[in-house]
Amino acid sequence: MNNWAQLYPQLVLSFQQTIYMVVWTLLIAGGLGLLIGVLLYATRPGGLLRSPVVFHLLNVLVNIVRPIPFIIFITAVGPLTLLVMGTTIGTQAVVFPMATMASFVIGRVVEQNLIAVDPGVIEAARAMGASKSRIILTVLIPEALGPLVLGYTFIFVAVVDMSAMAGYVGGGGLGNFAIAYGYQQFNWPVTLVTVVIIIVVVQAAQLLGNWLARKALHR
Amino acid sequence: MNNWAQLYPQLVLSFQQTIYMVVWTLLIAGGLGLLIGVLLYATRPGGLLRSPVVFHLLNVLVNIVRPIPFIIFITAVGPLTLLVMGTTIGTQAVVFPMATMASFVIGRVVEQNLIAVDPGVIEAARAMGASKSRIILTVLIPEALGPLVLGYTFIFVAVVDMSAMAGYVGGGGLGNFAIAYGYQQFNWPVTLVTVVIIIVVVQAAQLLGNWLARKALHR
Amino acid sequence: MTPVISFRNVSKEFPGAGGSPVRAVDSVDLDVANGEIVGVIGYSGAGKSTLVRLINGLEVPTSGEVVVEGRPLSGMAERDLRALRGRVGMIFQRFNLLSSRTAAGNVAYPLKVAGWPRERRAARVAELLEFVGISEKARQYPAQLSGGQQQRVGIARALATGPAILLADEATSALDPETTKDVLALLKKVNTELGTTVVVITHEMEVVSSLCDSVAVMEGGRVIEHGPVYDVFASPREPATKRFVQSVHGDRPSPETLARLRHSFPGRIVTVPIRDGGTAAGELAGRFAARGVRATIIYGGIGELSEKPFGSLTYELAGADADVDALLAELRSHTPVEEL
Amino acid sequence: MTPVISFRNVSKEFPGAGGSPVRAVDSVDLDVANGEIVGVIGYSGAGKSTLVRLINGLEVPTSGEVVVEGRPLSGMAERDLRALRGRVGMIFQRFNLLSSRTAAGNVAYPLKVAGWPRERRAARVAELLEFVGISEKARQYPAQLSGGQQQRVGIARALATGPAILLADEATSALDPETTKDVLALLKKVNTELGTTVVVITHEMEVVSSLCDSVAVMEGGRVIEHGPVYDVFASPREPATKRFVQSVHGDRPSPETLARLRHSFPGRIVTVPIRDGGTAAGELAGRFAARGVRATIIYGGIGELSEKPFGSLTYELAGADADVDALLAELRSHTPVEEL
Amino acid sequence: SPPPGASSSATAVKIGVADASEAYWQVFQRKAKERGIDVELVNFTDYNQPNPALSQNQLQLNQFQHLQYLANYNVRNHDTLVPVGATAVYPLPLYSRKHRSPADIPSGGQVVIPNDPTNQARALLTLQAAKLITLKGGGNTLSTPADVDTAASKVTVIPVDAAQTAANLPSVDGAVVNNNYATSANLSPQEVIFSDDPNSESSKPYINVFVARAADKDNPTYLDLVRVYHDPEVEAAAKQDLGPTTVFKNNDPAELQAVTKSLEATIQKAGT
Ligand SMILES: Nc1ncnc2c1ncn2[C@@H]1O[C@H](COP(=O)(O)OP(=O)(O)OP(=O)(O)O)[C@@H](O)[C@H]1O
Ligand SMILES: Nc1ncnc2c1ncn2[C@@H]1O[C@H](COP(=O)(O)OP(=O)(O)OP(=O)(O)O)[C@@H](O)[C@H]1O
Ligand SMILES: [Mg+2]
Ligand SMILES: [Mg+2]
């Protein structure tokens, strides 16, 4: 059994690892997911870039990736991870499967939020001669910003949650710390403290998200 | 090592278990999550039922529950599960933590989708003297139906994913089957077949969801 | 008789862009009598929509008291407020149709809220859609309707339950003149047959002149003038009111028009207001002839305002200057003739 | 001169509710000359918005060809279509403002699209907001603006880049008469100073009469009448057109009004149209006097249409029946006098 | 980000483990350091990961598996990892709070077993030995719950997360609990109603080992680390964490390798 003094450095490290994983995953998957989401939205029938081929391919791809149990997914993309990251283990390596999976998840969330945008404003932008990419970047996304911010806040939690599985491949992190040092050791104080730290981080992110969403809504 | 003949009954059972878990979770959490989402939407500042206390309590509660690693969550609600379900292990028992967690997840997704509804129509319903509950049921939700359907489709996948963790407490299911009989046994054909079955189920759900969403959009 | 709607020193502020609040409605005192049709006019942004939205509690006043059917809205229980709203129909400036319901579904909605049984509902919806002329669009969704069709759905919806008070925020702005006429006739009918009190915001002075009993003129959040339509229009006190009245029947010619008229009519040009009880246009012709002045009507018109003749005519007077001067002097003794 | 916009047998169908498609635009052939201001009028649902949306390719015709600036839209490369749209400003019936941008941001948007440098943009935005009178609302978001303020943002936005073609779908529907007048003056100015071709959909006949060179009347998706405003209004051929014209200056009294007039004026009542080049109103008075018939103007008016006098006057004729008959017979020889 | 194991010290060893959270590893690291070896632990919660990582040179050693698991891994993945030293063998006892002996467990009862691949088959064999279940074909070290002949078995086997076996003890008839979890969960030895014998020949496949790439099977540093593990101080700490019933093993690497080979052969034969 460990005592707090022994655990403390490990906890700090785990915290750093979580931040590392979450930040990188969000940065990478935030962008890629936005792209996927925008494509899912825009290529659907009647969309700005309507293209049944791209839409169905992407739709199927997202649905292939998302339901794969994460540990199987990590292993399946292992060779690719090795190629890209130079290693398949550790905090850095796990960002690759995390970001990949998160991209697809974010894609769906973004798609959902874009679909609620009033088609009238898209039309107005088209009527001004704006290019499709410009419409997407300067009209579609800003118009959906309120729900999008909440969507990304939602995803933040999902990624934090996902990072708990980083321990599968030696990625560490708070979630893994809570499991390995708390749960598996039946050490409930450690579990509790760790989970509380996670919750505080998430809560802070949510407050920020709510605030930003309210700012973005303009109504 | 198992051969297909031996595994087949287990696979069928796992399929049934997954269906069982996913259906029950979606039924229960679909309703509870809708409630949570509606409350999150309606109690926020300027909302239909504005109530800072309820909003912040709920907001914090959702943020407390969601980031808890699922295995820890299962254990933490174990006593409650025992009380409610009479046991903490097996397919039936795991529906309790799954539905609880999923309720909070769905709550967030619903909240996001409701926030995009044009406040003008809510106002119109208020002006007609409709009660708040009626507005929520007959205006707010129908108006958000397109994105909501996509949101629930998103959640379907998330729940299928979550059900892969049912194996923690003996819940079985396809996800666990893929891991236990495929992945952990280094049996890639089994893994592949199982994952493909999962993907097919998800894909079917998504097609249905997309179709319903398009119907619901009316534009 | 006690007013059915009454504003008592009501103000409504919104948070503004630069921190300073926008006072959309400013210290308004206004009474609307039961069964009256009152028009609210004013420049864009004057606070008309906000004023009307205070009546059914869609906006809550920053200060002051709105009293409807004898009961103050503030502190009214949610139940009672809902019941009140059930008796108040509203046509929105931006229509606010439920995009998830068909035209018929939108009209049926308030009936459902009011608890009408299914069969009566269907009949009523059909009747209303017929009234506003969009029966064949009953099963279309709002996104598939033209602007005017959407507005008509909004009108039908507001009238559905036969409300005691109808708030119409630019109810005919998207309608062609024919349809507008039909809708105004419908509102009039509702008013006379059911005794519905109607508050109409409008930019079309014809709506005021043909429909309203009284008119309130708003400017900068304040009600700057209020009274029977004929009184306000016949003798507008405020500059804003004057400018609005100019746009109704029998306006004097605009500077550009006047210039063109002068080109065709070299004589002296005067505008004579035609008011009920004032100088009848017919009399004038006789007087002109008697004085040996040839008068030609070159502009203006006579219409009806609150069912009384109202307007102004612009004449070219041709004759000896002295004769014309004498004529004008005589006319001025009882009518505000203006030489242009 | 080749037309700047030309519809060649254009139809547009939408999927309808019951499976049968809605033909919103039906076999339209229409040319709009460069620098012209053409009004499009018609009943609600006639297909006006759809017609105009075909011009900048927001709708794609089901059949037929829309040619703009000499080039057919169909098969035009995306790039070219975009470039074309950059030269076509559009004011939407439902405004379609970007809710995520302020009033100023909305107006700046097309300038950004057109690649204007930042400094010029700011100045232009300020100028446009000033033009439409909402400078002080520059930093407000659409949801914080009144209906008319939103519409004015839409107008400013459409005019921002100084478009070669302006499509205005009920551009003044939410505006008070004063502001409407200002906006129309602005459109006229843009037309004369920059040579902008303007297509205005409107329900306000004053807009047509004061602004447009030509007018197209739509009914059931078809353009049933088209020509110079004076010609179409002075001698409308189609019943629909007639009804629209009735709502402009100098209309004959409605049945109810007529009933009231008969009450006050027991004599015979006739309506005489006043047209440019026809009988001048002034002349009539003389003739009446000469015949010993006392004529009193009781209704109607004379206004301007395309800068020419236009209207009708309704007289009460008091005198011996024979005299009146003789007078009417004489008048009828050159003017379509109508006895009511 | 955490620095990769490129420490300046000449002998830095990265070891993949699955229980880095156990305190004895800190003693191990300290003792290794005294011998000039910098040990970096990489903790995997998924057993599938450390072997490939070792193969791919991302680790120098791992220590989380028994010979049986290693043999199975090697066969399935055509790999050649070898044991370089034994650590310990743990009994895998059946616990119960409701019953005194396996015979007391009513038919139709529920028994939970760990669902991790290193323990699952062994747990099944234990239950068969306790006459609670029957495995089709007699069972072997690769049996899975799918091989349980439900008709011929007295109890239902429910595989759960290894930590859940201890956690669920109160609500089931019996639980097969790994040593370390039993210790962490403070299960009482009195609650053990059946156990296999860790010293028996049949327990040999379950000896836990340090594993290295075949090329490194004689690497002196690695052999040194095996010795560090058996330092009395480390063993004492390990016993504390892993439970009093832990039996430390110090078999000769050659013997371990031979056992592995024969296990591999058996698996090869049984294999698909
Ligand atoms: N997306 C659509 N789907 C189905 N029908 C449509 C659609 N858009 C327009 N219509 C129909 O086409 C016809 C013409 O519509 P349009 O909007 O062009 O009319 P409009 O002349 O502009 O009418 P308004 O003056 O009321 O705005 C209407 O009957 C309308 O219901
Ligand atoms: N939610 C809001 N936030 C901030 N300002 C607002 C808000 N709603 C209205 N206003 C401001 O209040 C003033 C009055 O608005 P209101 O909508 O009542 O005008 P209106 O008379 O109806 O104008 P219009 O004829 O253009 O519809 C306007 O200056 C407007 O900008
Ligand atoms: Mg308004
Ligand atoms: Mg239209």
UniProtKB/TrEMBL annotation, chains A, B:
Q: Which domain of life is it from?
A: Bacteria
Record-annotated ABC transmembrane type-1 domain positions: 15-209
* InterPro entries per the UniProt record, alphabetical: AA_ABC_Transporter_Permease, MetI-like, MetI-like_sf
Q: Does the keyword Transmembrane helix apply?
A: yes
- Please tell me where this protein is predominantly located: membrane
Q: Which residues cross the membrane?
A: 20-41, 53-76, 82-106, 135-159, 190-213
Tell me the compartments it is located in: Cell membrane
Task: Note the topology in the membrane.
Answer: Multi-pass membrane protein
- Could you list this entry's UniProt keywords, alphabetically sorted: Cell membrane, Membrane, Transmembrane, Transmembrane helix, Transport
List the PROSITE patterns hit by this protein, alphabetically.
ABC_TM1 (PS50928)
Q: PANTHER family, per this entry?
A: ABC TRANSPORTER PERMEASE, TRANSPORTER, PERMEASE PROTEIN, PUTATIVE-RELATED
Q: Which family does it belong to?
A: Belongs to the binding-protein-dependent transport system permease family.
Q: Tell me the protein's name.
A: ABC transporter permease
Automatic annotation (TrEMBL), chains C, D:
Q: Which InterPro entries match?
A: AAA+_ATPase, ABC_transporter-like_ATP-bd, ABC_transporter-like_CS, ACT-like_dom_sf, MetN_ABC, MetN_ABC_transporter-like, NIL_domain, P-loop_NTPase
Q: Domain named ABC transporter: which ranges?
A: 5-245
Q: Which UniProt keywords apply?
A: Amino-acid transport, ATP-binding, Cell membrane, Membrane, Nucleotide-binding, Translocase, Transport
Single Gene Ontology MF annotation: ATP binding
**Highest taxon of source:** Bacteria
Keyword Oxidoreductase set for record: no
Keyword Nucleotide-binding among UniProt keywords = yes
Per its UniProt record, what PANTHER family does this chain match? AMINO ACID IMPORT ATP-BINDING PROTEIN, METHIONINE IMPORT ATP-BINDING PROTEIN METN
Record protein name field: Methionine ABC transporter ATP-binding protein
Q: Which organism is it from?
A: Pseudonocardia eucalypti
Q: Tell me the lineage of the source organism.
A: Bacteria, Bacillati, Actinomycetota, Actinomycetes, Pseudonocardiales
